[in-house]
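Issue 218. Parser rejects a valid record. Input:
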Amino acid sequence: MCFTLVINVSADKFVSVKFARCIDGDTATFILNDEEIRVRFLAIDTPEIYPKNNIKPFGIEASNYTCERIQSAEDIKLEYDPKSDLKDRYGRYLAWIWVDDNLLQKELISLGYAKVAYIYGEYKYLEDLNKLEKDAINNNLGIWREYTVTFVYNNKTKLIKVKPGETIEKFIPRKKGYKFIHWQFNNNKFDFDTKIESDIILNAKFKINDSILTIIYITILITVLILFIKIKSIKRFKNDYNNT
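Output the parser choked on:
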């Protein structure tokens, strides 16, 4: 196939291609010598956008970024890494993607839209990618972002960190004399199957235990009965006094 031109040059040489179409954040097709080739971006992995009912967090952002960059590029070059296989197991070519003299893999990693992955050798730009990934993690960018879920109960708070798209485990608080009902978010019952996409605050909703209510009712009833008896006694005393 015409793409073998890439492996006939040294690693510091480039092969110019034309944009054909986008696939996702780390895959695209290009035109090389009038033939369309599918290329998997070497050494990175972006979140999946297929199937459509299971899109991963930041998959759309990564895909849109890649598509915008290669569609608008004036110059696109592929670079083959001599430490890498030419193709992956799906028959896609593996290459570094240069867009207007900028390495697209570096851009995706630095924005937190991709992670370093599928490393099977000492690739040319691997050290740079690892440094950029560390910075993205430290800066809480993209796929490395963490959200805070705050549980509020009994004048206390409990904080947990959650990755985008993850769910959280139910936490059941205790309050003496009360029964826990559910957690509320924006005054509605919170569904723990909800995927977390932002910082949220959950408030515990309690109700008084039925046994405590029963004791309160009995106490009130006894108090009212005692008052009634006292009032009756006072009236009887007054009547007896007036009759003497």
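Fixed in the parser; the record now loads. The helical segments are 59-72, 104-110, 126-138, 210-242.
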